[in-house]
Structures are given as C-alpha cells and as structure tokens.
C-alpha cells in the first residue's frame, strides 16, 4: 500500500502536505477495526481517543449489559431449578458483587485487547485528547496538528434525553451512568421499551428489583417481528416486569423514599441512598387516565444522539443531518478526504455495523471504488430468550411483494433441543418474497443471535429458502429448524408441480 516516507527536515519546513495516510478519531468499535485494518494494509495510521479505548461497547454498552444479564440468568435458573428436576432455591443476591464482576469483565477485556500497548505494537500511535478538524487533511488535538491524506471519524453517540418536564431536576440514569451504581436499585422505572431498556429491565428484575417499563407506543421493541415480540412480552410480564404501553408521560418529580427502604430490607440488603430528595415519581396517562409510578431509580432509554459537537464539521463543510453526519454508502462525507462511520453517521447503531462500516471505509481509502454498495445488518436483543432480526418483517414483506410474500414458522415447542432444555417459548419465522427468495428472518430462542447468521447470509446472497433446506444441519440443535422450514418450502413447491408430473411406464 501507499506509505509516505519523508525526512523530519522536510516535514518541519512544511514542504510535505501529509504526514500520515490516515487519522482515526475515536477508538470505539469502529475506530478499533479501522486502525487494525489500516495497519494490516501497511498504511501509516495514527489514532486519537479522548477517553478510554473500547468506547461505548466496552464501557457502557454491550459488554457490561451482557455481563449483567449473565448473572441475572444464573439467578433466574436457581429460582426455576425444579423445572430441571433439581431443588429450586431463592438466590442470595449481593448486587454489589454482581456489579463488581461486571467491572472485572470490562477490565480483563481492556487489558487483553483494548489497550494502548496493543496498538503501538502494531505501529499505531495513540494520541489522547479532544479532536477538531481544522481542514480537510488536518486534525488538531490540543496544541498538536495531525496531517493525513484521509481522516476517519468514529466518535459514536450518547444517550439522548427526552424533553420531559422535571426530568433533569429529578435526575436519572442512562445506559452510560447506570454502571456507576454500586448496587442494583431496589425499584426501577425504565422509560423506553427498546433493546437497551428491555435488556436492563429483565436483568434488574431477575436480580430482585421491582421494575416498571413505560413505553410510548403500543408495544415494546417496535422494529422487531410483532408475533415474536408478543411472546417475549408475555414472558417478561410473567417474570414480574410491569410493562406499560401507550404511556403518555407528563412530568417527573421526587417524593418520600420510605417505601424503597422496605424493598431493600426485604431483599436482604442495607438501605439504598436514593438521593437527597427521595424517590423518582413519574406522572402520566394511560388510555387518558392519570397514572403515577414511583421507584428509587429512573432509567431513560429513549434513543441516542450522534457525537458531532466540537469536531469542527461546519468549518470544513461537512453536513450533519437529524441522525448524524451525512455520508455516502462507503462512509465518505461531502469532504472527499473525510469519512464518518458507526453511530456518528446514524445509519445502524450497533457495534457490529460500526465495525463493518469502518472496514468498508478503510477499503475505500486503500482501494478506491471497491467498498461495495448497501449491506444487510442483522441485530439481536439479548433478553432471555434472545430476539434476533434480519431483513424484512412479515408486514414489510407483504407491503413490498404483495401475494408473492410467504411466511414460514416453526415454534420451539416442536424443537427437540428446545424441549430438552426447557426452552419451548419462542419460534423461528422466515419470510420469502418473489421466487421463494429469503427476505426476512426472525428468531425468539436461546442463542438467537448465533442462529440468525445463516439466514442473514442467505438474505444477503439472494438465496431461496429451499437452498437452506438442502444444507444438512446438526441434530439436535435449534438451528435445524432452518433446514426443516427449507424442506417445507421444497415440499410446497413439489405439491404445486404435481399436476405436471407423469407416471413412468
């Protein structure tokens, strides 16, 4: 790959326009992938980070939430051990130890993979500080200017707070600040029924807290397949989560905190300090009727905002839209030397899509014109069971393909593996469009995030469902349902052709 070799005297004299091939701003999910790939390709790359390497995923997102969910699932399994022929027991939960474990998991990952030494060993120096573009090829960090042929912005996003009267005065937790708690809250109100809110609601409920979720719309997880969301909703309510849909919130206030001390004592923990003003009180309406909800803590999970502030984007002519920096399919902005990916660009706010977008941007920089077009992004909400999604929902497919759309479903109650593991709640739904091509896949199942990769590949490659029916899957697995549904599609095709067949002889 191209690499600039310049003398220090020429650089200091200003006769060289570019010192580096690439400056990566932000070492979160996207920036880490970009820096690694650029170094592998032999580019002269320098990275800038204002806080901690690893970004949202390691410190406030995927890693801590999944570590918390793992502890919560262990507690849930103990309570329901009788379903497996074992003696059930109410777990003795010390939530301080649980949250200490979460932080220990983060530190292990940071020490092993997300640290300065690893990048410097790969020839990628890391500069710490706030970055600001001062030109199409220049990034200023403090008093230092970094010049490069290309700049890749990977500054991510942050929780966005709704305009709810009294919210800021009363105080609230977000997906970032919740990890600063020393112990799990005795009672919790979650505003927002998206993936972050629902995952944390189930986790804290299983750890012994009283949890209420307030969702503005008619159902939680509105982007996912409704039939599977309905099953998951019943499961969450059965676990004791108060899911309130069609909630219209008016304001937030604070009130006496005596009730929350009782919750803590019942759980065997010392009283929680809920702040000088007492518990959080949310006032609103459901079906036009006034309602009021109280809890020791309030968690807001209503969306995220791109971290565009302070980057100097306007000064260099980079457009910012409602979701973030405006880019092309390869991540390039209106300034041809500057790219933006991940949450900053606001297309798909997932760790895995940020990494993929970053790799496409680096490929576009190194091999112009070869980054490719659009791409499919599956996702998973890591509840128990997990809810995974790829492509179109059934309703979206019918709107696009009309009568050509078909839905194929297998409930886990018919899966030998799911029944053996006591996990019969859930289903696999596959959706086909014209000529039987797979256009959507949705799973509510244990490890659904692992299962969704195969149908996602089929959707991305334009394969037919019958193609998956010809792939031999391992038995007994939940994923064998993919092959079985592929077989059903093949049988349906064969039945439609029976009239064309003529017996031999």
Number of strands: 21
User: What's the CATH topology label of the largest domain?
Assistant: FAD/NAD(P)-binding domain
Structural class determined from secondary elements: alpha/beta
Stretches where pLDDT is under 50 for at least 5 consecutive residues are: 1-17, 258-267, 269-276
Query: What overall geometry do the principal axes of the alpha carbons give?
Result: globular
Question: What summary fits the major beta sheet?
Answer: 7 strands, mixed
Beta-strand share of residues: 15-25%
Helix content: 25-40%
The CATH homology group name of the largest domain: FAD/NAD(P)-binding domain
Radius of gyration: 26 Å
CATH class of the largest domain: Alpha Beta
Q: On the 0-100 scale, what is the average pLDDT?
A: 91
Tally the helices.
Answer: 18
Annotated CATH architecture of the largest domain: 3-Layer(bba) Sandwich
The first-to-last residue Cα distance is 67 Å
Indicate how many domains the architecture comprises. Answer: 3
